[in-house]
Amino acid sequence: MAAVSPIMNTPEQSVERVPRLQITRTLIFSIVFVVAGLLMLMLSARQIDGSAASTLTFGQGISPLAVPTVAYATAIGLVYVASGALGLIPISRFAPWKAAALLVSGVLIIPTVLILASAGKETNLITMLASSFRAATPIVIGALAGIWCERAGVVNIGIEGMMLTGACFGFLAFSYTADAVPGQGGLYLGVMAAVISGGVMALLHAWLCITFKTDQIISGTVINILAAGLTSFLRLELLVNSDAARETLRPAYILFEEVPLLGDIMRWLADLPILGDVLFQGKPIFLMMFVLIVVTHVMLYYTRWGLRTRAVGENPHAADTLGINVNRNRYINVIIGGLIAGLAGAWFSLETTGTFSESMTSGTGFIALAAMIFGKWTPFGAAAGGVLFGFASALDTRFQILEVPIPSQFVQMTPYLVTIIVLAGLVGRATAPKAVGTPYEKE
Question: In which band, very low, low, confident or very high, does the pLDDT at 1 lie, cut at 50, 70 and 90?
Fold first, then answer.
């Protein structure tokens, strides 16, 4: 009798299988960091003078920091190659280490861009940080508007249109009340008009997609198209010949300087090193952004209304059986989101430029939605995403100051490229509320 091969008697489950290489987000970003690290290692010494240093300044009272540019680029290149190589190892138990390494590499992009761009020159990090926060203001506020809507189960891609409407009606109200109201009262009337107009557009959106159960994507698109046409018409008919000056809202510490105790506190806060420059010298809508972040967080997670809103967004049928009026809850949350989006619109025309131009929001509403997804539908997460996009926007001005030999058109593309990268899954899988986008029909 022939001998039986021992291989034939080996159980199938005892055979070790080589894991297959799968195309995942971790793999893609690992390859990107490996390539970026190798390029930095190969090109930094050739393109940058070995004796060049990037001088980082931090404002008055703090000594500047000189960073050897080539040495820094070499160190970061090694970090990128190492983190990317770790991400390429197909062993599941290394997953937490992979995620941490790629996260650190992603965070290092911000200082690395500034240090490489300022080789042989000076750049003020505090000014850059302040510019990033300022540029993030409409993005963060728009993201909060999206959270109020989508946490209740209503998709709102019409934030762009609500912001544009707020910018237009806010400046329109200011133009026709500037002479009649003393001081900056006309500007604050304009802010109120912007907030209300954003709420009216949100009411239209809620009416279409909650009452008539219109597809929520189509309804938001209608809002954007309507806002573009309406604001263009109003600008041509009512604003082209307007004599309104390019006046903007004053910083908050100047606004309260004549109030006995509050004025002294605000002035003291504005004079603080770093925090004063970055935060407390800001204008009212900028400071309102931080208030809205905290209020939204508290309302969503520490109040009965927030609990009901999250229940409506996750399982409206279960919420209905508990006595919650699903459609009323959605109406109120969408309108609140519209009011917030109108405030973001006022930032463009009344706090920043002092004028109104067609399509001046320039897609900020869509970037705000990306920041909301980046933050996984949480207020503080959305704020972090907004600051990231704000930094990308602030790079344009900083690169012009540093005379970086990169065409300005490419730098202006940065916020939109960051949007694509984020939506591609840089922060991992983001799960929306389960009932978002689904009209509710009472059984």
Answer: very low
How many residues are given for the chain?
A: 443
Give just the sign of the alpha carbon dihedral 269, 275, 279, 282: positive
Count: domains in the chain = 2
Specify whether the CB–CB gap between 160 and 363 falls below 8 A: yes
Q: Are 172 and 398 in contact (CB under 8 A)?
A: no
Q: In angstroms, rounded to a whole number, what is the distance separating the alpha carbons of residues 136 and 363? A: 13
- How far is Cα 199 from Cα 344, in angstroms, rounded to an integer? 12
Question: What whole-number distance in Å separates Cα of residue 120 and Cα of residue 122?
Answer: 7
What pLDDT score was predicted for residue 231?
96
Model confidence band, residue 134 (pLDDT cutoffs 50, 70, 90): very high
- Same domain? For 47 and 93 the reply is yes
The answer to whether the beta carbons of residues 81 and 23 sit under 8 Å apart is no
The position carrying tokens 């909060």 is 144
Contact, 248 vs 188, CB < 8 A?
no
Compute the distance between CA of residue 43 and CA of residue 62 in angstroms, rounded to an integer. Answer: 33
SS3 66: strand
Residue pair 266/280 in contact by the 8 Å Cβ criterion = yes
Range of the domain at 72: 25-120
Q: What is the DSSP letter of 250?
A: P
**307-313 average pLDDT score:** 96
Q: Is the pTM of this model over 0.90?
A: no
Tokens of 107: 């965070």
Residues 185 and 320 in one domain: yes
